Amino acid sequence: MKLYQLKASQALPITIDRAWKFISNPKNLKIITPDHMGFNIISGMERPMFPGQIIQYKVSPFKGYTTKWVTEITHVKEGTYFVDEQRFGPYALWHHKHFLNPVEGGTLMEDVIDYKIPFGIIGQLAHPLLVKKQLLEIFNYREQKLQALFGKIEGCSTELKLTSN
């Protein structure tokens, strides 16, 4: 089973505190997820983020397919990073690290996602046709949405890279 990795980075002209308040609030995930994904939080957003927090969502990653997605916040260092891991959902493995770092003029948001596709060779064949395309679309949408909400730092580029091992 292949392990895939997606890395995304985006510089925003906001303080780390403001960036943290936004990305550490599960309610804001719906704002930065494309509408066609039918993303809805079922539970787990009642308290500020903490290690051990379970968040349940419903999502439609592909037309005609809706699934429940359960993640656990496993690590939190306030204002610096947090990690969410899938406990139940569409992936065989989902480990998502969110980092915030100061840069001149604002904050660099970085995401590193390690994931595996279920269904063995069939999943591997579906990856470039469906999964990779969908993830790149989601993160491109997110980049545009965050830029619309907060602006961008002139001269700072964004990066989106997907690799497999």
Automatic annotation (TrEMBL):
Xref: SUPFAM superfamilies: Bet v1-like
Name the UniProt record assigns to this protein: Ligand-binding SRPBCC domain-containing protein
UniProt source species: Saonia flava
